[in-house]
Amino acid sequence: MKVNAKQGPFNSLGDVPGIRVGHASDKGVRTGVTVVLPEEPVLISVDVRGGGPGTRDTDACSPDNFLEDFHGLVFSGGSVFGLAAADTVTSILSEQGIGLPIGPRPVPVVPSAILYDLANGGDKDWGETPPYHGLARQALLNVSSVPASGPVGAGFGAIAGDRPGGVGMASLCLEGGMIIAAMVCVNSFGIPLPVAGGPDLSPGDIDLPKAGIEGTNTSIGVVATNMDFTKSQLRRLAIMAQDGLARAIRPIHTPFDGDTIFALSTRDQKLRGEPSLDLAIAGTLASDCVMMAVKSALQGAS
Fold first, then answer.
1. What are the phi and psi torsion angles at 87 (to 5°)?
2. Rounded to two decimals, what is the model's pTM?
3. Which CATH number do you get for residue 199?
4. What angle (nearest 5°) sits at the alpha carbon of residue 32, between those of residues 27 and 38?
5. 238: domain range?
6. 147-165, pLDDT tens digit by residue?
């Protein structure tokens, strides 16, 4: 059996119908926020491998827990300060009537992950008012099914090894309806490998262009699909997808990184007669998309 997937029409996360992305950036602070906003609730799981992650609501994404409807994803610069962006997205969505109907007002479930960009030279003297509330609001206003890549949103102030980082996207489609897409915000400790435009390293060679400080780097992102996978199957998809980072960046998943990949499904496309085979194919394509998204991020940032 041979699988031949083709690039989606826009090579973007928005190639999965019903998924939109919005970016907002602050040039003075050199930071930003990226919001993934589905038109309808989606199913989400996650794989966290970095030694210094910064996240919100990842426990809700576990197959052990009951939640089946998620209402968005938020990626932000700013380290722990950037987690505030999800607060704003949650409040705005609730005001719009979006969320779980479990009380006097809807309760949106919006997982989030952050990257560290506090040492990139921008003006971080924001006092008691970090810019992430305003950036999240603007990112929601900017959502599009054909989003931009490069130095935008959460990747605006990112640094990948010894070069500018950024946001990258890629997508692959199969005859029969399977769509896999990825978006990655690259702020890695390691450097890109040749497939992602970096130097050619032989086995045993390690290039360490940054100072090793725990929790000050990461690559965060999401793979999206239209396939009707279960939460447990999506967890496996995220695990397989994260291998795309290892194919594009070296070293990866270090104590200095917070590498986190979410897997999201709109549940629009029914699985075929062999669900495990569908998952194996989807996971392999997801790894390809993450690898290509890293390359896209670094090319767009250069």
1. -60, -45
2. 0.95
3. 3.60.70.12
4. 140
5. 6-301
6. 999 999 999 999 998 899 9
